[in-house]
Specification:
The complex is a heterodimer.
Chain A lengths: L4 H25 L3 H21 L4 E8 L4 E7 L1 H24 L6 H20 L3 H19 L6 H33 L13 E4 L4 E3 L7 H10 L3 H15 L8 H4 L5 H10 L1 H16 L7 H22 L4 H21 L2 H37 L15 H15 L5 H20 L5 H22 L17 H19 L2 H14 L22 H17 L2 H13 L7 H20 L5 H23 L13 H19 L3 H21 L3 H22 L11 H27 L6 H8 L9 E2 L8 H9 L1 H24 L7 H25 L1
Parallel strand pairs in A: 1-3
Antiparallel strand pairs in A: 1-2, 3-4
Chain B lengths: L7 H24 L7 H19 L1 H8 L14 H25 L9 E7 L3 E6 L1 H25 L1
Antiparallel strand pairs in B: 1-2
The chains are: A mainly alpha, B mainly alpha.
Chain lengths: 846, 157
Amino acid sequence: MQPSPLVVLGALALPFVGAALTPLVYRLLGERTAYYAAAVALGTFGLLASQFVAGVEGAVHVPWIPELGVSLTFYLDGLAFLIAFLASGVGVLVFTYSAGYMHGEEGLLKYYATLLAFMGSMVGVALAADLVALFMFWEFTSVTSFLLIGHHQRDPESGYAARKSMLITVAGGLFMLVGFLLLAFVAGGTEIGRTFTLVGGEAVTLTGETVMLESMIGNADLMREALTASGLFVPTMLLVGMGAITKSAQVPFHGWLPNAMAAPTPVSAFLHSATMVKAGVYLVGRVRPLFLPELPTPDWMLVFATLGLFSMTVTAILAVGATDIKELLAYSTASHLSLIVAGFGFGGAAGVELGAETGAFHIFNHAIFKATLFLVAGIIAHEAGTRMIDELGGLREEMPIVAGITAIAALGMAGVPPFNGFWSKELLFETAYYVAEAEGGIFWLYPAVAVFGSVFTFLYSMKFLSLFFGEKPDALGHVHRPPVAMLAPPALLAAIALAVGLVPQLAIDAIVQSAFESALPPGVEAHALELSLVKLLDPTPYLGMSLLTIVLGAAAYTQYDLLHGAVLRAMAVPVTSPDWYYDRTVAAFGRGGALVDRYVQTGLFRTYAQAYLLSVAGLALAGYVATGAALPAFEGINVALPIVFVLLVAVVGAFAVVGAPSHVAGVLTLSILGFMVAVFYVLASAPDLALTQLVIETLLLVIFLLVLDRLPAYYGDIGRREGIQDVLVAGTVGVAVFFTVLLATGASPDDPIYRYFLETAPVPAEHGPFFFDAGGGGNVVNVILVDFRAFDTLGEISVVAMAALSVLVLVAMRGRGRGQDRPDSETAAGEVDAPASAHNGGASDD
Amino acid sequence: MTERDTTVIARTVTRTVVPIIVLVSVALLLQGHNLPGGGFIAGVLTATAFALLYVIYGIDSVGDSLVRHPDGFPIAILRGPTAAYSRAFTVGLAIAVVGGLGSILLGFPFLTQGVVFLEHVPLYEELEVASALMFDMGVYFVVVGALLTILAVVGAE
């Protein structure tokens, strides 16, 4: 059945509208805004659910930039529903939980508004079928999560974490954007035609019409052929993958995820379980059909399965080294995401279907148990007042219900049968085993590494659970029971986890089956996935792997402290520390930036002018050389006498500028040059240009005179070194301009555009009282500016307004930034920039 | 500027010339569709008239006599004339964008312009009204506002 456009767009718009209305609601409800936000999330969930229940699969299409093949297309299928349900469903619970957790905190208004916008962006990522729309929502999640992670604005650690996550995920997103552009470019060379539609088919538009959308995944074979033929297959895959692996915190980009725990715990629960990081694995699952041929063993598997298993192991080991419960959970998140990536990574005849099942099922399971555990961690921190693992223990006595909840979720995380995580991890073992069996040789490392990594998963899961058992440390005072608003959400999630663990078929039938089908290449027939407790009685190699994991894990748990210490020591070593690479890179950029400060942005206008002019001239000249532009042949001088005269005066004016003894004389003689150019325009029958030139010249003269009042009346003496420098700069710029004019006027296209303008600009000979297909004006220049190219002009006046704004803000705020390095240098740069760009805007208007 | 007195001649000439310049600039704005002119030129010309006032009368007296002082802006510099100027370019941008959006409401792409001929108008008989004029006005206000803002801020330094 086709989706209903209004419902889909409504579900998408609801969180954003809700976020926009939050200030108003907050004024009315105060702290109870949490329930309003939960209601908004529930609304989104409900709207989507209404589509899901109706068995919808298909696209909603709203044209956006049809010329470029960009549209707002939203595609609903199992995978999209799964992610969108997790985002909105866990959203409801997180908002409810926030009502208790964020009680009495500052900045609640910002918190709820941003969290709503964040949730909306995530739903957008899940539904977007157009690559541009996907990228847009993708970066929205980065920006909103930046705000959320940095919620405690005055806390420097919070700022560090927010910047780190932003830098890593946004940078990864930019790689991904390049990958998207390559995809669209390659699609343009095939019979699909240039499109940004990733996945589609029949789509309904807002007006209810049904159109056929050509999508990349729908024509995956064509796309793969074209990509391979142009040699772009691996680069594109890696570029798109960069977005996914930075977002889902795969090694070596796992550093940001543990820092993100600086956010309030409900946000962590949301980010780490159901949203932000899920965007990455979602993308892997989504583009999988595009890059994964059925046979033979593809590059896809070598990259993603290997990376996934490797980073699953590394981050699981790091989790064992964690001293803070949220840190433990954060590394564990990275580890489980890697498991999902590894699952989606498996390909070949053996892994294509099992891998998709692993990925889709584990997305579901992980979101459920990890959200539970984060909410539990929040309860512990809130009620016990500490998050340090060493200081906690025996919490079972005071919080029996929470202990039960934790047991269900932690055992699921550990992969102990029959809890929910077990089933999807078992699928990973199965996939790895069959892939190894099919490929043989070194591929046996896959199951071996999977087991090895899972041992650590078991270890840290048990550690987390142990917080509730054993003896209670004396230092820990009385621990309160959590309020109902904080208890109900994890309890509900744990109930779901338990149900799924005992009867996995529930989740499979509900959504997992359709979600994994979305991650299969077109043409692969999906089998019904069937799992039940009976399967546990079946002796299989992968069940053996599970048992081996548990036995090894239980054995290693007795030595937990030893392992913990070893990992901690390893994390202190720079090369193996998770933060080292990021810190070094950022520090290197800082040093590089300081160089720019020293040599380019010195605060002296001379240096700026030199840098800008030389680089522009250099680029232009290099461009001419690179494109092999040929100079037109010299045809003798054929200009009228008056023009020669005017130009001569201009030249004399130019020399006079150089020879002027004072600033005032210099400016005045410079305007001689300007006025002569204006006269030249008059003679060349361009009254509009002449008028503009005259007025601008006058205004510039006045502004100069205003400023000159502050400058010394006479030029200083110029040294030999500066003189030579100036001659070089002026010479280069002069040469560049000279060649530009020659080349620009020498070119004469076969189909000059002016004919079109001259024909369509005036009032047409035959017309009704109203027409819009012609300009309808006698002044072609102005008609072009305000009609044919109005969008350009709109951009230009925006630039002019922006320049004025920056002058206003920079000058007004100059006094405030003293003592800090950056604001000062920005002020200096802005002041020089702004008038220049204002003039540019004007000049291109001419 | 203020420490140096301007001559009586300059003051008198300015007083006469400034209204004429403004009038001319408005004429340029209105006739731009068919004759040399247009929002950009008109805007710059108006700004020139103000610049002349600044040079001759000084920044304070222009602020006092031309523009009210709205108080209560958070940024100190956003008082007096600068506030009015920045409002001018805000309004200008809004006019341009709203004009463009109007065409969307009528079902055309953003910024599509049209021309209407009004018949039987007294004095003119037939009057050509281009929707582009609205856009031109937007350009005019942006240019006037932006240039004057820059002028006022830089001049006040």
